[in-house]
Design goal:
Growth Hormone, Chain: A, 2 domains, about 85% helix, about 0% strand, disordered C terminus, transmembrane
């Protein structure tokens, strides 16, 4: 039951987060008509998310993942729900809207990180392998994200952006309730070391620096996500507009890739325990990244293009479950939130850089040259697991002792 509840919480919370990311900018545009105000509010949400990614780790490790997860989801519901309610009653000024958007961003990272910290205990209680449990969790996250975007678009048409924000708030409350009632696993080795908040934060960063595999994972995944941001935010839309003149194709490319990734996560969860983690990651990383840029550069027929993106998605679906399995096996329980938060912060910080680089190169070099450049950089990045021996440690079997029973509360 704890694992099923946690999987449901993953899916619902990520669907709600995607809906929030779409609904808040739409709400601002709809109510103010100002692109500048929309940018300010969106930036506030992003800054809140980035700050909480790295700063919330010591709090989760000190006070426990389950309680922080529930608190973060309730706070998210309050922050998101207050936006349409305040607009309908007392009015919503730009400073207040910016603060609420920032609070919404602040609550997302603690909730997501805390749920990831709860995952190994829930997997253990289910009598399941880490590979299978990690694959199931990633599949639910991908399904939630894939469904969240079209659901938000549809619901904005049906009930309007304020209604979607209220629906978002309700999803966060549901997730908080599910986590509080059903995700009851014993917390592993809560933080008790001296040093205070900043000392605890520094100890997590020191661990990242000492563990060469975790450092390599964070660096590689950060670069991959920066390149993906350039693809998703700039290059795919430019290809759909300039080459195919079809906004429908843009949605189809994202949809088939997401569908393939969800299928890949399920496949890894089912069969992944039989595969070598290093081999799986090395091969799938090469297949998931650079070929997408090359496919766009080749301009094949639409069916072939969609099939290629689906195959790339299948490969991408195995990446996160492998990484989650390795991270849970290597990182000591009392450091997990801080280390995972540091990795997430690096990814979030570099994604805008990737999108900006793609935009600058698109204007300066043209679409074809930019696609090939990104493909080359992506290929070099994903060759690092093959080139550096530290990645072979992914197949080590160092597993921290899991919790033995659920908390009786």
């Amino acid at each position: 039951m704890p694992l099923l509840a946690l999987l449901g919480a993953f899916g619902i919370s990520h669907a709600g987060s995607v809906m929030t990311l779409l609904a808040i900018p739409w709400f601002v545009l709809q109510t103010t008509g100002s692109g500048l105000q929309t940018g300010v509010v969106t930036a506030a949400e992003t800054v809140g998310l980035l700050a909480s990614s790295i700063l919330s780790g010591p709090v989760i490790d000190r006070f426990g993942a389950r309680g922080i997860s529930v608190l973060a989801d309730v706070a998210a519901a309050v922050a998101v729900g207050t936006i349409p309610l305040a607009n309908a009653t007392v009015g919503l000024s730009l400073p207040l809207l910016t603060v609420l958007a920032g609070l919404a961003g602040l609550t997302r990272a603690p909730g997501d990180t805390a749920k990831r910290v709860l995952l190994p205990g829930a997997i253990f209680l289910a009598g399941m392998s880490l590979e299978r449990g990690s694959g199931a969790a990633d599949a639910m996250i991908r399904i939630g994200r894939t469904l969240g975007a079209p659901l938000a678009g549809t619901m904005i048409v049906v009930i309007g952006a304020p209604g979607v924000l209220l629906l978002d708030a309700a999803t966060f409350l549901v997730v908080a309730l599910v986590t509080a009632l059903f995700v009851r696993v014993r917390e592993e080795a809560l933080l008790t070391e001296p040093g205070g908040y900043f000392g605890w934060l520094a100890s997590g960063l020191r661990y990242v620096r000492r563990d060469r595999l975790i450092l390599a994972i964070i660096a590689t995944v950060t670069m991959m996500n920066a390149l993906d941001a350039g693809m998703n935010a700039v290059l795919q839309p430019a290809f759909a507009s300039r080459v195919m003149d079809s906004s429908l194709l843009l949605g189809e490319l994202m949809g088939v890739f997401g569908l393939g990734a969800a299928a890949g996560s399920v496949a890894y969860g089912w069969w992944g325990s039989r595969w070598g983690r290093w081999t799986t990651f090395a091969v799938c990383a090469l297949l998931a990244g650079a070929p997408r840029f090359v496919l766009l550069w080749m301009e094949p027929s639409v069916p072939l293009l969609l099939f290629g993106f689906f195959v790339c998605g299948l490969a991408a679906g195995s990446l996160n479950p492998v990484l989650v399995t390795v991270e849970l096996m290597r990182i000591p329980p009392h450091l997990r939130a801080r280390v995972l938060g540091a990795g997430e912060a690096g990814v979030l910080a570099m994604m805008p850089v990737g999108a900006l680089a793609a935009g600058v190169m698109l204007d300066g070099m043209g679409l074809g040259a930019t696609l090939l450049t990104f493909a080359a950089v992506y290929a070099l990045t994903t060759l690092s697991p093959v080139a550096f021996r530290v990645w072979r440690q992914m197949d080590d079997h160092r597993i921290p002792a899991p919790a033995r029973q659920p908390v009786a509360v």
